[in-house]
Amino acid sequence: MSEVFRIIGKNLVQFWDEVFSFATGLQRIILMKRFYFPIILTVLIFFSCKIDTGIEPTQSGFRGTVHFINDWPEQTDQVIVVAATKFPPATITDIILGDPLPLGVDSASYQIFNPPAEFAAVGVVWKEKDQPWDVTNIIGIYFPTDNKFSPGVVKIKNRKTVVDSIDIVADLSKAKLKVESTIAGKLHVNGPWPDDATSVLVIASQSFPPAGLLDVAFGQPIPAKFDSTQSYNLSVQPGKYKLIGCLILQSNSPLGLESLKGIYFKRPTDFFPGVVTVPTDTSKITNIDITINF
Amino acid sequence: MIKQNRILVNQTIISLLIAFSFFSSNASGQPRGMINGSVNDKATGEALPGVNVLIAGTVLGTTTDLDGKFSIHHLPPGTYTLKVSMIGYEIAQQKNVVVLPDKTTTLHFDLVESVIETQEILVTANKRRQSIQDTPNSIGVLTARDFREKNQVYLDKLLAYASGVNFIGTQVNIRGSSGFSYGAGSRVLMLVDGVPVMPGDSGDIKWDLIPATQVDHVEIIKGAGSALYGGSALGGVVNIITKEASSRPTTNLRFSAGVYDKPAYPEWQWTDRLLHYDDVDVDHTRRIGKSDIFFALGRHQSTGYRQNNNNQSLNGSFKIHTRFNGQHNLTFSTNFQAGKWGSGLMWRDQRHALEVSPEAVGDYVVSNKVSTNAFHHYVANKNFSIKTRISYFRNYWKNYFHDNITGSIANRYGAEIQGDLQVSDENFITFGSEESWDHVNSGLVGIHDQYVLSGYVQNERKLITNVLLTLGARYDYQFVDVGLNDSEWSPKLGLVWHAQSDLTFRASSGRGFRAASMSERFSDSIYSGLRIVPNVNLKSETAWSHEIGVNYVPTPYFYLDVAAFVSDYYNLIEPEPDKTQTVQFINVTRARISGVETNLKFSPWFHNFSFDIGYTYMNPQDLDLNEVLAYRSRHLLTFSGTWSYSFLDFGVDYRYVGRIEKVKLYPMDDRVAQKVMDLHLALRYGIWTFSTNVNNLFNHNHTQMERTIMPIRHYVATVSATF
Q1: A18 contacts in B (CB within 8 Å)?
Q2: Could you give the ipTM of this predicted complex?
Q3: Cβ-count burial of B190 within 10 angstroms (0-12 exposed, 13-18 middle, 19+ buried)?
C-alpha cells in the first residue's frame, strides 16, 4: 500500500512541476510584446465577423384544405400535395412534395413550408401500394377560377409570406392503378416547328371535349423539333377514349386548349376525333397515328 | 462463361506465381551480414516506434518496433546509405554504412522533432516507400496527431480537414472528383494497407469499417491514379495504413463521450432528450513466439443529432506479423464491423430540418463487414523483392424501411503479386498483376459476378542527378456475367526536378477510369418512393488528370506547396431523374475540373505555434450543358492553428466549403457555404491524455447533399491512456 501512495505522491509532485513550468512559460510569453500581435489580430478578426448560422427554418409557404370526393381506392398507399414550378413538370427538380395526408378522410388541411418561389401548379398526387411515386397520377389540382384547364399560380413572395386558402378538390375516382394497357402510334409533323416549342405531350381523354385537366391522361414529354415522324406510347387505364391528341409545349405560351395541335382521326376526312377503346388493363392498341399541323 | 472466367483468373494467378518464383530463384548463396539499430527522440531520449528505415538504392527497408529497434537481415556485403524518417520528425541519413559477411553492423539515430509536418515518408503513391518530394503527384497525409486533435472516430470526419478534400454525405471528393451519386460508386479508391476495400454491389467507400483509433495514418493521392491502382482511382486514392503489430506489450485505452447542443432554432427541436454519443476503444500489441500481434476492439453508439441518425456499432481488428527470417515476412490482418444505423435520407421540410417524414421514423439499416488480407513480402536480394497479397472483403446490409425491406451480400476476392526491382541506383521498376472477383447476391441488383484481370509496370529513372522521371501503365480487363466486357489502358507520366535542396518542381499526367458498379448497372428497385431502373449498357467513365506543382521548404518551420491541375472527364456516370421520380444511371457528361491548390504550413513565434492553411479553387464545368457541374464547390479552405506548450495543446480548425451551385433533386431549397469552426484542448500527463473539443462552435447549419443538415454544435471529452 505504501508503494501505491509513494507512486501517487511522486506523480502529484511531477504534475505540480509541470503546472508550475507551464504557468511560468505562459507568463513569459504574455510578457513578450511580439506575442501581442497575433493575439490582437485574432481577437479583431473574431469580433469583426458576424456570426453566420447558415440555413434557417422556413417561415414561408402555402396552406389550404384538400376535399376528397368519391371512394378511397383499396390500393391507396399515400396521398400528398405537390407543387410544381413548371406545369407540366419536366423533372422532379421542378417539384416539391408535402407531408402525406391522412387516409380515409373527407378533408384534410395541409401546409407546405418552402422558401420564396412561384409555383405554376399545386395538386394532389395519389400513390398506389408497392408502386413508386408517379407525379402524373394527379387526382386534384388547385383551380382558383372555373377554368379547369388553367391551374392557379401560387407565389411565395418573401420569407415571411404564407399563402392561404390554396384549397383543392381531389377526385379519388381519377386515381390511376398500375396497368399494362397502352395506346401507341406515330406522330407526323406538317409545317415548321414554332421556335419556342420545347416538348410534345400525347394526351387521351374519355370525354370530348374534356371538362378539365383532370379528365386527361398525359404521356411522357417527347422533345420537340423531331424530324417528320416520331413514335409514342401512352399508358392508359381501360376505357373508351374519345379524344387522343398532342399538346405542344412552348416556352413563351401557357398551356391550354390552344396548345392542342394534333388530334387522332380514324379517317382524314372525319369531323369528330377517332374513338379508341381499351378493353382490358393489358390491351395494347397500336397504329393510333396523329398528324401535328402548324 | 462464369466457370471459364474463374478458371482464367486462377490460371493467371498461378502463372504469375511461377513466373515470379523463377525470377527470384537466385536468392542466396554467399555469406550475408545484417544491420541492427535503434532510433530515439533527440529531445526526450524516448524510443521511437514505427520509424521508417530504408536502405537507399535498394528495395530493402523496415520499421522500428515499440522499443525503437530495427534490424535488416541477409544483406550482401557492401557499403550502404540508410535513410530514417518518421512523420513529425526531420529525416536522418547515414552514409557509408559498411556491412561485412557474417557480421552485424550496429547504428543509432536521434531524430529531431519537426514543428510542422513536411517530409513525410509515403507508402502508396508508387506502391513503395518514398519521400513526398520524390512523387510527381500531390499527396496529403493525415497523421496520428491529426486524429488526436480532432478527436473523431470515423475517418470521413477527419479527411474533411485535408486540403483539397470535401465530402458530400459520405462520398469523398478529391478536387471535386466525385460529386454525389446517392452512395452508388466512388471516383476515389479506398485502400486499407494497400488493398482495395470497396464492395462489389455499391462500389462506394465504407468509412465505418475501421475507426480512426485503429489507424496509424492516412495518405491521400490526388489526381487519376489508375496507372498503378486500377478502377475507381479516377479522382484519387485514399490509403488507410493501420497500426503495426509490435513486440513490446502495449495497451491503448480510449473513452470518449459527447453531447449535442440544442438546435439553433426552436422549430428544429425535435426531442427533449439529451442527445449524446460515446465511444470505447481498446487495443493491445505484444510478441508471441516469432510473431507480433495486434488486436483492437471498439464500441460506438450515438443517439444522433437528428431523427433516425442513431447508431450502434462494434469494430474489431486483428493483425499478426511474422518474420520467418530476414527474407520472408508474413502479415495476416482482419477487420470487422457490425452495426445498426438509423436511416433518414432527407428532412421533413426546412421548418422541421432535423426530422424525417413521419412515415419514415424508425427506418434503419443493419450491416456488417469483414475485410481479411494476407500479405507476404519476400526479399530475394537487395535489388529484388516480391509482395504477394490475397484478400477477401464481405459487405452485408439489410434495409428495414417503412416501404421497403431489401438486403445485399457482396463478396470480393482479390489477389495481387508485385515485384520491385532496383535495376541500378538510378533505375527502379515496379511491376505486377492484380485480379479480383466480385460476387453479389442482392435484392437491389440480383445475382451477378464481375471479374477484373490487370497487369501494371512502372519505371522510375533518374535522368540526371536531380531529375526523376516516372513512366507507367496498367491494363485492366473486366468482364461481367451478362456478357459484357471492357478493357482500359491507363498510362502515367511524371517528372520531379529537385532544383535546390529546398525547392522541388513536379509535373504529372495520368489516365484514370471507373467501371460502373453493379448497383449503377443493375439496380431495379423502389427506394424512398424513387424508382431506380437498370442500365446494363453503362460504359466505364474515364479521366485524364494533369498537374504541375512546386514545393518549397526553406526551413523546418516553413512549407509551401502550390499545384495547378486540370482533369478532363469522359462519359461520367450520373443518376438522372425524370418527373415520374424514376432514376437511371447513364453516361451523360463530358466535364472538366481545373483549379489551383495551395498548402502553407509555418511555425512563427518560438515555434510553439503552428499553422496549416490549405486553399483550393476549382472550376467544375459540365461541357455538354455548358454549366457548372452538380454537387461541386468552387472554393475549399481549411485552416488549423495549434499552440503547444509542454503538456498542453490548444488548437482551432476552420473549414470553409463554397456554396454548391447546382444539385439534382431539390434546387429550390436553401443552400449555403459550409463554415465550420472547431476548438480543441488536450492535456498530457504521464500515460494519460485528457482532451476536450467543441465542434461546430458557431452552430453553423448547412447541407452537403439535399435536405440533410450536417452535425450541429457538440461537445466532446476524451480520456485515453497508453501503458
Answers
A1: 646-647, 685
A2: 0.75
A3: buried
